[in-house]
Amino acid sequence: MIGINTLLQALFGTRLPAIVGGSFAYIIPIAYIINDSSLQRISNRHERFIQTMRAIQGALIVASSIQIILGYSQVWGLFSRFFSPLGMAPVVALVGLGLFQRGFPLLGNCVEIGLPMLLLVIGLSQYLKHVRPIRDVPIFERFPVLICVAIIWIYSLILTASGAYRDKPNATQLSCRTDRANLISTAPWFMFPYPLQWGHPTFSAGHSFAMMSAVLVSMVESTGAYKAASRLAIATPPPAYVLSRGIGWQGIGILLDGLFGTGTGSTVSVENVGLLGLSRVGSRRVVQLSAAFMIIFSILGKFGAVFASIPFPIFAALYCVFFGLVASVGLSFLQFTNMNCMRNLIITGLSLFLGISIPQFFNEYWNLKHRGLVHTNAGWFNAFLNTIFLSPATVGLIVAVFLDNTLEVEKSKKDRGMPWWVKFRTFRGDNRNEEFYTLPFNLNRFFPPT
């Protein structure tokens, strides 16, 4: 589904070179559905699993309508007119900074693998990027991730095979070993995913309402990721029409996730946006080809199992670089604003601080049993609010956009960076937009941009 959704987005959505992947925003609503008393009463574990998957499917299908409606009705595009470089800077920055817990804290679970990976990536991509072992081919500049993953993966295989983790605690073995749970040997050679494989979806108003919070959060995070991807791909900021089109197709992707029973919804992959900056490869053709490989490897189970055997601290090391790059792209929007203005300093500082502080406060209270700081008798209400306020980008958007559009708005147009920003609001505001965002196969004749 990642492959299919990425292809749809790259062909008919924003057409930016961005991967559409799973989202952490869906964890809380899914945990709420799993712990629903009506499902917990089912004694047979396998039957409970099947019924839970059907409930998650139904919630995703209903909740996807939020993005489909907001996207194709152009409502999200109209709302984006309240954005400015000042308002978007903390939002995009928090898309990266808000994922700090998935960086070095997870790298530290197996520091003998994660730390060499981090140092090797920085060394190859930055210090050795001009070294060309093969004539006129910038190998270290274009392929640092592939080279580093291969080297450290082999290193971790050697550690596992030599018995380095034989007597280590379970947590260490889970993070460091490459042979967890016999992934490769138990994976089927061929498996074709198909819709409704768990049976017909079941629908519940409470489940659907809880899932809508994750859909709203993924929409905000995707908006920030689209802005970052456009800058790293040297494209103009996506106009309101293109942004709405992308959100609409992302809604269709979540609908497909529900039909296929993926167990989670979709959003733009932040780590792959960071990879655009690290590898300096911003071609949508490359992304479309990658999506095709994802589809093929998902059908060939052994290949997917091989990649799943890579220890997670290797990815955590990459996240430190990728998420940091996305955060810096967000901060780069401040170059179009007047940061000598106290109004702008207050909005930026408050948005960044609260965007990190409030989710961290909510995160301290969240667990599978109590399910968050908000714990009323209405589980769907708890899941909704906890999901919203556990998202740094969403909290940052609420604070930044509200303050930016209520504090001395008319007096501060130039300080907010609006003279630079306004020309990218409409599809025809910049002649480069047609090159970047025009639909393929001459489809613009039937869906003219506004």
UniProtKB/TrEMBL annotation:
InterPro entries: NCS2. Pfam families: Xan_ur_permease (PF00860). The keyword Transmembrane applies. One of its GO terms (molecular function) is transmembrane transporter activity. GO terms for cellular component: membrane. It is a multi-pass membrane protein. Keywords: Membrane, Transmembrane, Transmembrane helix. It is found in: Membrane. The keyword Phosphoprotein does not apply. Its main location: membrane. The chain crosses the membrane at residues 16-34, 55-76, 82-100, 107-128, 143-165, 286-308, 314-333, 345-363, 383-403. Belongs to the nucleobase:cation symporter-2 (NCS2) (TC 2.A.40) family. This is Nucleobase-ascorbate transporter 1. It comes from Gossypium barbadense. The lineage of its organism: Eukaryota, Viridiplantae, Streptophyta, Embryophyta, Tracheophyta.
